[in-house]
Specification:
Layout: E1 15-21, E2 27-30, H1 31-47, E3 55-58, H2 64-75, E4 79-82, H3 89-98, E5 103-107, E6 110-112, E7 115-117, H4 119-128, E8 135-139, E9 154-156, E10 179-185, E11 193-198, H5 202-214, E12 221-224, H6 232-242, E13 246-251, H7 261-268, E14 273-276, H8 278-285, E15 302-305, H9 312-322, E16 329-335, E17 340-344, E18 365-368, E19 380-385, H10 400-407, E20 415-423, E21 429-434, E22 439-441, E23 444-446, H11 448-456, E24 461-471, E25 475-484, H12 492-495
Parallel strand pairs: 1-13, 3-4, 3-5, 5-8, 8-9, 12-13, 12-14, 14-15, 15-16
Antiparallel strand pairs: 1-2, 6-7, 10-11, 16-17, 18-19, 19-20, 20-21, 22-23, 24-25
Helix pairs in contact: 1-2, 3-4, 5-6, 8-9
Length: about 500
């Protein structure tokens, strides 16, 4: 669905991936060449002894090898286990051990703000804690790190290719319900959850949401500032390629070497759909209103946003200062367990700031009170899904009861997502924060997101996070962590609440 179907005269020469990094040296790969590279890697993995059902970790920044590795792992029936490229040793080792991974694909290092992040040292130490790992493939980013491989378990990624026998075409037969990918999410409490998805779940839901929500089809250039360890990384890869689009990926800080790097990237590669998070926009908005205007952003057709609730100020900044009050902001909310979205806008529906115009196609969504009854306009309740959908998680990896406790045991045969939501009188939906994060202060339930929104509305505040701590009088007291705008020092006015 991602590659073979596009080997036609019309599509094979079309760019499948455009990758760029802080150096500003882009690389473009066609659908034809991408298929050849994926087949070579798949054949090389087979030559190393990987077989259907083996779990292989992917510890890479967003680059071409990340795309080819993810597709090659699925092509031979193995299970991909992406991990965030910036994770430390314990976070990586715990995930690899949980799935009994037999392989890991990593790199020697990558650049962040002009400095080398030594990924190989982290991977070496993590692998030393995983007894099941048999082979580690290391991509050379030409950073010339000097750390030697500690054992013959470690193999240069490029050394894999001479072993490949492309004529073998190692395409494994798989069923719709064979496991394809395990995506780890930390959730809000407890140890990370390994979300199990199959060949006909996550990729299809990703492609469906991308097509219907952001109008992506053949030839569309879509970029999402993300990482392979967050669900939006695989979502971008599977969804874009299934739709015949071009993935534009950026490996680096979005404001380096200059604060307008993101807008320069969009102009250079003629990005049409730009996926961001509210946090990223809050940071970029502080760099100045004039920076987006320095670049030709006429190719942009829409923004898309997910990951957290919006605050009005950064939403309006993106809409007015970058989108010239013309481009829709497609708000998108769901989760790793969903394979994408529960709620989403699209270019045809009216949009209100920070809202969601409708559920995603194929999602039977409602808002319920504590007794399981639907609530009316203006009432807050639990966001739920009442019927199955194509991308639903097949469970937590080897933790069935934890999965059932998390989503299925609040209301009979209803998925409870864990978000507070509300519909207004015009039937627009609003996400109000995690219901399992609710603080009970002096007997009243308060969502941290509500207080955080008030804090970031202050002109001196860029970011805010609110937690609860035990309090003898109120039961729970709120503590706020606040990040100020760079141009201000600690302000007595802010401390005094003025």
């Amino acid at each position: 669905m991602c590659l073979d179907r596009w080997q036609t005269d019309e599509m094979k020469d079309h760019p499948a991936v455009i990758s760029d990094d802080e150096s500003g040296r882009p690389l473009s790969t066609s659908y034809e060449v991408l298929l050849e590279e994926v087949e070579e890697i798949a054949s090389g993995l087979r030559a190393l002894g990987f077989v259907k059902g083996d779990a292989i970790g992917v510890h890479l920044p967003m680059m071409l090898e990340t795309v080819t590795s993810l597709l090659a792992i699925g092509r031979i029936g193995c299970i991909a286990v992406p991990v965030f490229s910036g994770y430390g040793v314990e976070a990586i080792a715990s995930r690899l051990n949980a799935v009994k991974a037999v392989g890991l694909i990593t790199c020697d290092g990558f650049m962040r703000r002009g400095k080398v992040f030594n990924a190989l040292d982290v991977a070496v130490e993590a692998v030393s804690l995983c007894s099941t790992i048999k082979h580690v493939l290391v991509c050379n980013r030409t950073i010339q790190l000097t750390c030697p491989f500690p054992s013959d378990k470690f193999i240069e990624f490029d050394d894999l290719l001479p072993w490949a026998k492309v004529s073998d075409r190692p395409l494994e037969r798989t069923s719709a319900e064979d496991p394809l990918i395990i995506l780890y999410t930390s959730g809000t409490t407890g140890k990370p959850k390994g979300i199990a998805h199959t060949h006909a779940s996550f990729p299809i839901k990703a492609a469906q949401d991308m097509a219907f929500g952001t109008d992506v089809g053949k030839g569309t250039r879509i970029s999402w500032y993300t990482d392979i360890g967050w669900m939006m990384g695989p979502w971008l890869i599977y969804g874009a390629l299934i739709n015949g689009a071009t993935i534009c990926i950026y490996d680096g800080a979005p404001d380096y070497p200059e604060p307008d790097r993101m807008w320069e990237f969009c102009a250079k590669h003629k990005v049409e759909i730009l996926g961001i998070s509210p946090t990223l926009i809050r940071a970029l908005s502080n760099c100045g209103d004039e920076l987006p205007k320095k670049h030709d952003l006429s190719s942009l057709r829409a923004f898309a946003s997910t990951g957290e609730p919006w605050n009005p100020a950064p939403w309006w900044w993106l809409f007015e200062k970058v989108g010239d009050s013309k481009l829709p902001i497609i708000n998108y909310s769901g989760g790793t367990e969903i394979s994408g979205g529960i709620l989403m806008g699209n270019p045809l529906l009216p949009i209100k700031p920070c809202s969601f115009p409708a559920p995603c196609p194929g999602m039977d969504v409602d808002i319920l009170d504590d007794e399981g009854n639907s609530v009316g306009p203006g009432k807050v309740g639990e966001l739920v899904i009442k019927q199955p959908w194509i991308g639903m998680a097949r469970g937590f990896w080897q933790e069935k009861e934890r999965y059932l406790d998390t989503y299925w045991r609040r209301f009979k045969d209803i998925w409870v997502h864990g978000d507070f939501a509300m519909r207004d009188k015009d039937n627009h939906w609003f996400i109000l924060g995690r219901s399992d994060d609710t603080l009970k202060v002096a007997g009243k339930r308060v969502g941290p997101a509500e207080v955080e929104s008030l804090l970031v509305a202050h002109s001196l505040v860029t970011e805010a996070a609110v937690i609860g701590v035990p309090d003898e009088v109120k039961g729970t007291a709120m503590v706020a962590f606040v990040v100020q705008n760079d141009e201000y020092r600690i302000s007595n006015h802010l401390i005094d609440g003025k």
